[in-house]
Amino acid sequence: MPLVKVKRHYQITIPQSLRGKLNLAVGDYVELENKDGDIIMKPVKLVHPDQEYFYTKEWQEGEAQADKDMAKGDVVGPFDNIKAAVRALKKTKI
């Protein structure tokens, strides 16, 4: 377990070995919690409200399915024009 020193303004340096394991970078946020006298530090990734939908369970399931379909080649397109795309959509059974 690495030992760190509390410096001026109560700053600490997170050892490189932990930064790598936690995938922390300059500018990232961490959450601190006091649990029975121990300090628990958890990385926190902030998501802009306009992008919250992307991280929902339903959206991620759809993304995973799309990745599987593309890997199998179960896709149509690309298309040269909108008419060709509409024709392909009409032929597709959903």
Notable features of this structure?
alpha+beta; Pemi-like Protein 1, Chain: D; 2 domains; two-stranded antiparallel sheet; 3 helices; 2 strands
Sequence of secondary-structure elements: HEEHH
| SS element count, helices | 3
The Rg value, from CA coordinates, equals: 23 Å
Q: Taking strands numbered 1, 2, ... along the chain, how are they ordered across the largest sheet?
A: 1-2
Assembly annotation: single chain
What is the average per-residue confidence, as pLDDT, rounded to a whole number?
92
Cα end-to-end separation: 55 Å
| Amount of beta strand | 5-15%
Structural class by SSE content? alpha+beta
> Which regions are unreliable across 5 or more consecutive residues at pLDDT < 50?
none
- The total tally of domains equals 2
